[in-house]
Design a protein that fits this description.
It contains 37 helices and no strands. The chain is mainly alpha-helical and about 950 residues long.
Length: about 950
């Protein structure tokens, strides 16, 4: 009951039926508070149309905007939002509408507000919310406010959008200009970016090619130049290009590092070679000094021979070790051979002396001078070597037996010689050369003491003083040598007791200790220390015996490998290739040297011979390398001459000379390296000649570019002149022909976008000017027809008289017209007069139909030229005319004014013309001729 009463007495705007609520809503007045409250309640109604009507009645734009996202697909809501926010309906103030417009996100509503808004700021706010490029293009083309159009055009940035804007924007020249400028800027930016990318790619290709190239003298400078060019790039490279650059950079640096390593190794090799030469020099000086000492000693003793043997052994070991690393020079090898020869002489003489010395001593004791002479002659002791004391006594005994003793000489020259030898003795003492000084003292002492003259007393006193210095030097050597010998004994015993040291280290330390022991000589020598040292050394020798056997086998294998290497190199040198690359030969030389050092050590007794063989092979190989390098140098010099000849040869085209120069560059790269001192000089000369020729190419390019630019500028000036020229009379066709001839003289143009644009523009201008000239010519033809109208009317009157009265009369053109009749119309005029004599009257139906068809045909043809279309009833005639024109297409094409002239000539010649037939067509003919005579403004 309560619900029924509520429904009966409830307001109609609360009725369950939406239609009833809608009708009640229309009667509510928002000015009255109660009804306004009802309207506010209806804004929450379940029916969206009622909610929309309530919001519109309340003029609540904020409510519309809040609910619009839920009903954006409803057309009524869309229209209400657009009209209210645009200011077309409602009384919402501008500030609120601007605020509400900022809250809308739908592009469709924003586009309408931007088009229909009643305020510029409102439109700009709506435009600012638009992001789609299509909406912006629509606003730039169709918005009624220029400021909105311009701002929309400024926000279009895509190339396709700018092309579309340029195509569609016709009402605003500023928008068109803005779109064209921005499009041109985009294209120029794209071209610039493409050019920079191409520059980056070219630079990368050059750097990668440089990374693959072998080292040359200018490798580092070119690499640094390319690296600076890369750093100066205006456009940052892509990640892939950056990766390629770093890879090429690493390869270039690796090439430079490898070269620096090779140079450092070469310098170290030179230093080691110099050090080896210095060591050889010291060894040779030592043995030469020893041999010289044997020549000048007082007598040769056993310890002298032992010392010489030890020095010879040391020389042989060190000499072979140094020769394995670096072969000696020819001068050093000759000195070594001579020293060995002198050593062999001394050793052979000593061996003969050892064989006959017991017999000589027996004969000397027995006084058997005959046997003594025989034994001395068998000894064959060389005169250049000081004999032993026993041999000297034997020789003195034989000499005293055969000759009388000579009186001692007091020659002044002998005293001077002894004085010089004392000076040498003093100098040796100052240097600390104890051994040489001791030998010289032993030789000088008996000679000076044998002198009995008073002049010899100063020499004896000086000798005594120097002998005291020699004794002091001997004491110092003994003072230093004693602790040193004890230290060496302890070291060699510790070395013998060390059971964990490797064999090679043990042998090295043992050799060093033995060398130091021998270097002490006889200073502070005693039997106990000598026995200790020898015992420990023997223990080490026993321990190293198996290792030395293995080392001997290894040395034998190394010797065989060295001999095989020599065989290979000799076979290579026996048949060298004529075009052998010196770089390959250098690699063979270096690898052979490396293998030679690898196959070390070798047996000492055979190392010298194989070393000399390898040295000879190396010299021959180096000579072959030098020969091939000299040949390459001559070939490169010939290439330089060819490039110089190409540079000065003006008879050949520059492009062909550049092509030939590039081929010569390829040949240069295919050749090897010239000798080290000449390679860089030849390369600089070759590069200079190539650079001069390429500079000519660049100058030619600049000249050609300037000429092409001038040609384009002249063509642009000509096109501007053609564009500013507008023909006024048909007789100005010669001016257009002159323009075309000038343009033909400027062709061919360089192929680029500017020239293509010029040609398109010129084609359009020529087409427009020809069309205008054609229209002018047609207008002149129509004007000429109008001047002939009195003649036409005279013929019509004569035709009418002939058709009605059968009286033929001649029409005189000179009488009717004030000017002379053109030739084509004169023939038509004569034909028209003849028609009145040849056609029988009255006209038959066939003749009448024929004249009517011809007249209609001329009208249709004229309509096709003037309008481009005909009536439906005239379609058969149009088809017939088109077929006729197609058949005439094999002949030279006629211009439009010629066709009009032919039609008018045929129209003048057509007769006799019935007046009724002429009256039906004359009006349309006049209209068509008036249309043809109409010329557009320039």
């Amino acid at each position: 009951m309560h619900g029924l009463l509520r429904r009966l007495f409830a307001p109609r705007w609360q009725h369950p039926d939406p239609e009833v609520r809608r009708q009640a809503l229309q009667r509510l007045d928002p000015q009255q508070p109660e009804q306004r409250q009802a309207l506010q309640s209806l804004t929450q109604d379940s029916d969206h149309q009622i909610r929309l009507a309530a919001l519109l009645a309340l003029d609540d734009c904020a409510g519309l905007v809040d609910d619009y996202p839920h009903y954006r697909h409803e057309e009524a809501w869309f229209n209400a939002i657009c009209q209210r926010l645009s200011g077309l309906e409602g009384n919402t103030d501008l500030q609120q509408r601007q605020t509400l417009t900022n809250q809308i996100e739908e592009p469709r509503a924003l586009s309408v507000i931007a088009l229909q808004g009643d305020n510029l700021n409102l439109r700009l706010i709506a435009l600012g919310k638009l992001t789609d490029e299509g909406d912006l293009i629509h606003q730039a083309c169709h918005n009624g406010v220029a400021a909105v159009r311009h701002q929309a055009a400024e926000r279009i940035e895509g190339e396709e959008g700018l092309k579309r804007l340029l195509k569609e924007a016709r009402r605003d020249r500023q928008v068109v200009r803005l779109a064209r400028e921005r499009l041109n800027r985009l294209r120029s930016d794209a071209e610039w970016l493409e050019a920079k990318q191409q520059q980056c790619e070219t630079l990368l290709s050059q750097l990668e090619q440089h990374a693959r190239a072998p080292w040359e003298p200018l490798y580092g400078g070119r690499f640094r130049h390319l690296e600076r060019q890369w750093e100066q790039l205006a456009q940052p490279p892509s990640a892939e290009q950056e990766h390629r650059f770093h890879q090429a950079l690493l390869n270039c640096r690796k090439t430079l590092h490898d070269h620096e390593t090779q140079e450092q190794a070469r310098k170290q090799s030179v230093e080691r070679r110099d050090e080896a030469e210095s060591t050889r020099e010291q060894l040779l000086e030592g043995i030469e000094e020893t041999l010289n000492g044997l020549r000048h000693a007082s007598a040769m003793a056993v310890q002298d021979i032992d010392s010489l043997r030890a020095q010879r052994q040391l020389l042989g070991q060190r000499w072979q070790a140094l020769s394995d690393m670096h072969p000696p020079s020819d001068t050093m090898r000759q000195r070594y051979t001579l020293a060995i020869h002198h050593y062999d002489q001394c050793l052979e003489a000593w061996q003969r002396w050892c064989a006959v010395s017991p017999a000589i001593e027996t004969a000397l004791t027995d006084g058997d001078y005959t046997a003594l002479a025989t034994q001395v002659s068998q000894c064959q002791w060389p005169d250049a070597i000081i004999p032993p004391a026993l041999l000297s006594r034997a020789q003195a005994a034989l000499s005293s037996e055969s000759t009388t003793p000579a009186q001692p000489t007091k020659d002044k020259a002998a005293l001077e010689a002894h004085t010089a030898e004392l000076d040498t003795f003093e100098h040796l003492l100052e240097r600390g050369a104890f051994k040489s000084a001791s030998r010289l003292h032993q030789r000088l002492k008996p000679r000076i003491e044998a002198l009995e003259s008073n002049a010899a007393q100063p020499l004896k006193a000086r000798l005594k003083h120097l002998a005291a210095h020699l004794a002091e030097l001997r004491d110092w050597r003994g003072f230093v040598a004693g602790p040193k010998r004890e230290q060496l004994c302890a070291s060699i015993e510790a070395l013998a007791n060390d059971l964990h040291m490797a064999e090679d280290a043990l042998d090295r330390h043992h050799r060093q200790l033995v060398k130091e022991w021998k270097s002490l000589g006889d200073a502070a020598a005693n039997r106990e220390q000598a026995t200790r040292f020898r015992s420990a050394s023997d223990r080490i020798h026993e321990r190293l015996a198996p290792w030395r056997e293995r080392l001997g086998e290894e040395r034998e294998a190394n010797l065989q490998a060295r001999e095989a290497l020599c065989d290979q190199l000799e076979s290579l040198l026996a048949q060298p290739a004529e075009d052998a690359d010196p770089d390959v030969l250098r690699q063979i030389r270096d690898k052979a040297r490396h293998q030679w050092r690898h196959y070390s050590p070798v047996p000492r007794e055979r190392s010298e011979a194989v070393g000399r063989r390898f040295g000879t092979i190396r010299h021959q190989l180096q000579a072959l390398i030098d020969q091939r390098a000299d040949t390459i140098a001559s070939q490169k010099q010939a290439l330089i001459s060819q490039v110089a000849a190409l540079r000065s040869d003006e008879s050949q085209p520059l492009s062909q000379r550049i092509h030939l120069t590039k081929q010569l560059q390829q040949q240069w790269r295919g050749l090897g390296r010239a000798p080290k001192g000449e390679e860089q000089t030849l390369w600089k000369a070759f590069r200079h000649e190539c650079a001069e020729l390429f500079a000519q190419r660049e100058a030619h390019k600049h000249e050609q570019a300037a000429r092409q630019q001038k040609q384009l500028d002249e063509m642009q000036t000509l096109i501007d002149q053609m564009d500013s020229w507008q023909p006024i009379e048909a007789s100005e066709a010669t001016t257009l022909d002159n323009f075309i001839n000038q343009a033909n003289q400027l062709e061919p143009l360089p192929r680029n976008r500017r020239s293509e644009g010029m040609q398109r523009r010129m084609s359009g201008i020529v087409r427009a000017r020809r069309e205008r000239l054609n229209r002018l010519a047609v207008a002149d033809t129509v004007h000429q027809w109008h001047t002939l109208m009195p003649l036409v009317n005279a013929h019509l009157a004569a035709d009418q008289q002939y058709l009605s009265e059968a009286v033929s009369s001649e029409v005189d053109a000179q009488t009717v017209l004030s000017a002379s009749l053109p030739a084509a119309f004169n023939e038509a005029h004569k034909k028209r007069n003849q028609q009145r004599h040849s056609v029988a009257v009255p006209l038959s139906d066939t003749s009448h139909a024929s004249i009517a068809e011809s007249l209609a045909r001329l009208r249709v043809h004229l309509s096709m030229l003037a309008v481009g279309s005909v009536r439906q009833s005239d379609e058969p005639l149009r088809l017939a005319i088109q077929v006729e024109r197609l058949n005439e297409g094999f002949n030279p094409e006629r211009s439009r004014d010629q066709e009009v002239a032919d039609i008018l000539v045929a129209l003048l010649a057509l007769g006799p013309m019935p007046a009724t037939l002429w009256a039906t067509e004359v009006k349309e003919l006049d209209n068509l001729l008036s249309r043809l005579a109409r010329v557009p403004l320039p």
